[in-house]
From TrEMBL:
Transmembrane intervals: 20-41, 47-64, 76-95, 101-121, 177-196, 229-252, 264-288, 300-327
Keyword Signal: no
Pfam families: BPD_transp_2
Protein's name in the database: Amino acid/amide ABC transporter membrane protein 2 (HAAT family)
Membrane recorded as keyword: yes
Recorded superkingdom: Bacteria
Keyword set, alphabetical order: Cell membrane, Membrane, Transmembrane, Transmembrane helix
Main location: membrane
Gene Ontology MF annotations: branched-chain amino acid transmembrane transporter activity
PANTHER family on file: ABC TRANSPORTER ATP-BINDING PROTEIN (PTHR30482:SF17), HIGH-AFFINITY BRANCHED-CHAIN AMINO ACID TRANSPORT SYSTEM PERMEASE (PTHR30482)
Annotated source species: Shinella granuli
Amino acid sequence: MALTMNTETLSTARDRRARLTRDAVGVLVILAVAVLGYLLFPNNLALLTRITAIALLVLSLDLVTGYCGVATLGHAALFGAGAYGAGIAAAHFGITDPIAMLAVGVVAGALAGLVSGAVVLRAHGLPQLVLSIAIIHLAHEAANKASGWTGGSDGLAGIMPDAVFGLYPFDLWGRTAYVFGIVLLIAAFVILRQIVRSPFGMLCRGIKQDPLRVRAMGASVHGTLIRMYAISGAVAGAGGALNALSTQVVGLDSLSFTLSAEALVMLVLGGTGSLYGALIGTLSFLWFEDVVSAANPFHWLTIVGALLIAVVLFAPKGLYGSLAALLERRGRTDR
């Protein structure tokens, strides 16, 4: 019996070390890509910061769609809530400390996640999708009508964040915003890796696979999904706040259906149910979109559409999911 316990302890320790190693590798890859982007595109840091902000949105979408199986096309409402929360705090209440603005965006996104989750989770399947679309349109119209607070169609301007820790001002070249965004992305990635591997994260995966069985075990399916929606909203709100900090203006495009749909496309492109897939899908889509639109301004949407069709047909698990499956099959063959 003692030998069995020692074996189990060693196995648990090995698994923990393996997980920590994978997390460390993930962080190092993010850092390497960030440094490479900084060195290769020093004059286009605004685009790289935008990619970082959208990556947070796609990560948050992966939490509810990839890990919980909740279909939504209105997730930009959470991103926009964070952007407008941080922007309104700065423009109307004089809260210009970047960390405080980020905190406001996170709270606003989490609250928006609670509200939208309570609505979306009342339905299943196609009605759930329709509810999510209704939410993003309602949020867009509400922001447009509340022009005294949001600036309406002209956008919310007058956002002037202070220097980070009083030392690093948001410069014209976007260096501070880019570094701030990368640090935020790494922090979110590490936290979310812990969440999706925790018992709570495993419960969410179980709900996606068989909610009836999870309910029969005595777990609260609705309560679990609401909590994950709130966490997802906090991550999306952080992305929105980063976008407000970097551009110093918040427009209605932060609450657009187009942004919600593109976020879902990026997630499918990279692979659902994987944080790595969300990051790869975001980077691939936005980089490809920027390159193709510059090379062919009139037909770039056709080229992007052809790429997405090819990925869905030949890599149905997404870029990361298909590559991981291929490596796993080769590993089995080598054994």
